[in-house]
Design a protein that fits this description.
Strand content: 5-15%
Strand order of the largest sheet: 4-2-5-6
Mean pLDDT: 87
Number of strands: 6
Distance between the termini: 32 Å
Structural class: alpha/beta
Oligomer: single chain
Largest sheet: 4 strands, parallel
């Protein structure tokens, strides 16, 4: 049976067709990493791609559930062996279909055999509730990872990347109006509120299969972060990587736009509420984010927001 629905990018789907089938056997991804952009997803792909317990697709970002894999890529995909070749042929065929086809998407991962595999696509942070619900419904054992980053740091890194790759024109980084012009683009804002992304995915993913990790921990102790993620995925953290060290990150040296104190303060005020919400709902390293910009966070506000967060989990404990 084919499980599919019509695909219209950035158009809300109103009809809710029933889907009773789900993935069985070894087909399909074991996990998704759904963001965040500039949160360490390239580092994660490199770490998992070099681990002996995993086989990762030859494309880091599949972009299937957001763009049917119809994206322009800045570099040629990896093609090391027959498994890679099979994958690339299959995804080219799949992307020609005008709808999301769960059955054949699952078959993309057959080359993994008994190994673990997953889809690391930061754009999945922008998926709607309806799409998320259908993904989790079809892959009920799917594990989900979100790499969170301080919204101020993340958005500036994102803008730096876009300028570096000529995706947007260079702009006067000292001019608040110019900064706002780029900041207020819908596509950038959709990716800039980690608390909202986490809330959408938590609504459908069982708590045992959802993890938040932090870019702060990648900066402080990448070895321990690697160990924690591998343990969550079911891989052996003690097995050494075949090609990279835990400290390796090919994007770490990308030149950033100059961030003046004035612009940093402006961005902090822009994201003030989100910084506090992240501290309350995400916990971990996010608890330190507001203080970086001189914002205090009362304990009773944390408790209030944590209680609100429980609403997203009540289905699993009722």
């Amino acid at each position: 049976m084919r499980s599919a629905w019509s695909f219209k990018p950035r158009v809300r789907i109103y009809e809710d067709k029933k889907e009773n089938c789900s993935s069985t056997g070894q087909a399909g991804p074991n996990f998704l990493c759904v963001g965040a952009h500039k949160g360490g997803t390239t580092w994660l792909y490199q770490q998992l791609d070099s681990h002996p317990d995993l086989w990762m697709p030859p494309l880091k970002e599949l972009h299937y559930f957001d763009q049917l894999s119809r994206v322009q890529r800045s570099s040629s995909p990896r093609c090391r062996d027959e498994r890679d070749r099979r994958f690339l042929e299959s995804i080219n065929s799949l992307s020609a279909k005008p709808y999301i086809d769960f059955e054949h998407y699952a078959q993309l991962f057959e080359p993994k055999g008994p190994l673990l595999s997953g889809d690391i696509s930061p754009n999945y942070s922008t998926l709607t509730n309806k799409v998320i619900r259908r993904i989790v419904g079809y892959f009920p054992e799917l594990k989900v990872i979100f790499l969170a980053r301080d919204p101020v740091e993340r958005v500036w890194s994102h803008l730096s990347m876009e300028v570096h790759h000529h995706q947007i024109e260079s702009f006067d980084v000292t001019d608040i109006d110019e900064v706002n012009r780029n900041l207020l683009r819908r596509g950038l804002l959709l990716r800039s509120y980690p608390s909202a992304v986490v809330a959408r995915w938590k609504r459908y993913v069982h708590p045992d299969r959802f993890r938040i990790y932090f870019f702060d921990d990648l900066q402080r102790n990448p070895t321990e972060l690697r160990r924690s993620i591998l343990d969550f995925l079911g891989a052996d953290p003690d097995k050494p990587a075949s090609r990279v060290t835990a400290e390796y990150n090919s994007w770490a040296r990308m030149e950033k736009l100059l961030l003046t104190d004035k612009v940093r303060s402006h961005l902090a005020q822009f994201f003030k509420k989100e910084l506090k919400t992240c501290a309350a709902r995400l916990g971990g390293a996010a608890r330190d984010w507001p203080a970086r910009y001189g914002f205090s966070l009362l304990l009773f506000v944390w408790d209030l927001l944590d209680d609100f967060d429980l609403l997203f989990w009540c289905d699993w404990i009722s």
